[in-house]
Please model this.
Amino acid sequence: MNARIESLVRPEIRALKAYHVPESSGLIKLDAMENPYTWPEALQADWLETLRGLELNRYPDPQGLVLQAALREAMEIPEDMGLLLGNGSDELIQMLAFTVAAPGRKILSVDPGFVMYRMIGLFAGMDYVGVPLQAEDFSIDLPAVLEAIEREQPALVYLAYPNNPTGNRFDADDMVRIIEAAPGLVIVDEAYAPFTDSSFMGLVGDWDNLLVMRTVSKMGLAGLRLGYLVGPSEWLAEIDKVRLPYNVNVLTQVSAAFALKHKAVFDEQTRTIRAERARLQEALHRISGLHPYPSEANFILTRVPEGRAGALFEGLKQAGILIKNLDGAHPLLKDCLRFTVGSPAENAALVTALESLLTAS
Model:
């Protein structure tokens, strides 16, 4: 290794692998929990018209106030709560870490969970504590989490609701116990809010350490890279201090505000995805050897026959379908694949390919 790199780059960074996004050109893309539907042509034309008058030579509104107003109305954000925008949820996770990071400070979450809680905490110099979920159903092991909170005194606790990559929604009473026990902030990550009927959004303000984080990616706007954080204004004012200037570009601000005025279009797409999720779940259950887990997200975690995850992943790729192989990512995910819920045709292709691959074996 280059001696200068070895002397300057932190050892924990050298030990990492960069976040990998696989090439998906020409494949049915069921690996990244994206909405499979594009905008109707008429809506695309109206959107392009709104972009016509933008002054790209000027910086965007640093606070994104027009977009904030659109989000407050569309997402029913409590009027007395603060709102902070990020370049995707990832930037909000980074801002939270930068706000509280100090030697010895801890981030706590449950595992398996969203990998960026750990990675971004490491970037900021914080230690990560992962408490394993229950093996049988991926529910929270509440005694273990409460014991870890008491022992580690984490500055940040992340709970994804529903959870990624398992797809289940944690028990709300367990969540409340954790919020009340935590000495620092508890961030409820509702990235998959469009696909469940449960939310903590209406409860922000009930506890002074509760924040709710969301993204517009899963509702069909992944390309815009927009996340938002809701909670007590005094907390968000501190977190805002580490936000980079002009972090949400003008194209994202205008496009997202336009899309939110037409939220009914995306709500209809969401209803279609939820219906397809149920159909895909039933189809997977009918395939011998597969164990799909219940999901309130737009993906289904599925355990496959022992030792077959890698071969099935490669076989599906050869059939033109890209999914996520989670075998090896965590001991509880042994032999697990994750399928994004796609369009009816994409889901049918997935089921057909799985049946063919498993029958051939």
Remarks:
- The chain has 14 helices and 13 strands.
- The radius of gyration is 21 Å.
